[in-house]
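Entry 12.
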Amino acid sequence: MVIEGIKSALQEYPEFEVVGEALDGLQAVESAGSLGPEIVIMDISMPNLNGIEATRQIKELDPEIGIIIYSMYSDEGFVIDLFKAGISAYVLKDDPLSDLILALKAVKGGGTYFSTMAPTILTRHMEEMEEKSTSKDFIDTLSQREREVFKLLAEGMSIKEVANELFISPKTVESHKYNIMEKLQATSIVDLTKIAIRKNLIKV
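Predicted 3D structure (tokens):
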């Protein structure tokens, strides 16, 4: 019923195409490997392999696949574990279906999207990690332009949106993004978002 509901909702958005379905975690991993989707909508509670482990395995297969968690669970442990696993969005099934569409659009553009409960959990977790961590984020090594690009990317803007906002070319944004991730020792936009939250550079 959930799958059919999502498919029905997506019919109104021609920019999205459903290329496959899976009824358990193992099928999800196998389908992601064979179909190579840009985005996977993942539940947490599934037979054979739960959503957390399936997410880890899919990200190992292809780190570029954006994963949206769509679940009834808002448990803090789940949110943090999935965030660490590299998800790009977390939406509750209790939220309006329009939130899932917003998440899809954000992830498609290279951004992130989190349900209303997730930012509070993540902020609290980041504060705890900040207290425990002695590592540097090397924020001071960023140029002024790199800081601007970093903040906008962390807020969920796509490469094109950042380019339009700063009146520079998408190629220049890509170059800044590469330099930023290298300087901050980040491997994904999700990592940049974590750092931005921890350094209070963006509000959640």
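Annotation: The two ends are 32 Å apart (CA to CA). Residues 135-198 form a domain with the Arc Repressor Mutant, subunit A fold (CATH 1.10.10.10).
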